Fold this protein.
Amino acid sequence: MTEKAGGAIRKWLCDHLTPLMNVQRCAFHVPGVGTVPVREPDVQVFTWAGVVIHIHLIDEVIKPHKIRRVLEWATDHGIPSLFIVNAALLPRDGERVEPDKWFVTLQTLVNDRAYAFRILDGQPVIQPVQFKAYTRTLVETSFGDPLLIEQIRHFRATVRHPALKGYWLVADFESDRSSNLPPIRRADYSSYEQYMPPPPPPRPEPDAQPTPRTPKTALDRCYELLGVTRTANREQVKAAFRRLAFQTHPDVSALPKPEAEARFRLLSEAYEAIRSANDW
């Protein structure tokens, strides 16, 4: 990527991020200025909530161990990270590659997808990209439509990929309408609703024969925890998890931090169990 192209991408990002409700301002990285080790961010996003998000434009091969070092430093300093890869470094749409490629690990950070940038018809665009399992030894590259950046959010992600395993502060351009999540903003606890367990079922009449009860499985309890039925599809389960995770995340929850962390962990484990059971 030429410096001119890089400048165009950075300016395009700032022009689209600055008008967002939760963004106060954006700033370019000035080469040679700053004390961030490993890798300086290309764009810094300052939110009204006081959180600074680092955006990294990856225009050369970056090994997973270096990505991990960036995440470690940023998370330790309370800074979410967002990586956007030059599409020229990635396989073409529909191309199949081995799953141990360095760029495949990036999609494990947020929503099982990565982000790519390119110049299309003279204008910068950002596209979501996924590397879907095709066989045991191959993944297929799939590019989505260019994003309309309507919000940027940050959260703590649990990554299970061996190369990036850990709990990291990350950011993304959440565009999935089914999630029904508002942009990140100063927390408003006035409408926070405490979790209330469902009321017990009515007792049978004395003369009525009790209906045999089928023991609940661990998976049944996972669905109940997310507030969805066993017939819920992937998008419904995903939306329910995101809604509850946004309420219970320790960074925004009104609950005491230990309780919020415990509830968030239970939600995450339930969501992962449902995904694993359905092979999603």
Summary: Residues 3-177 form one domain. The chain has a mean pLDDT of 82.
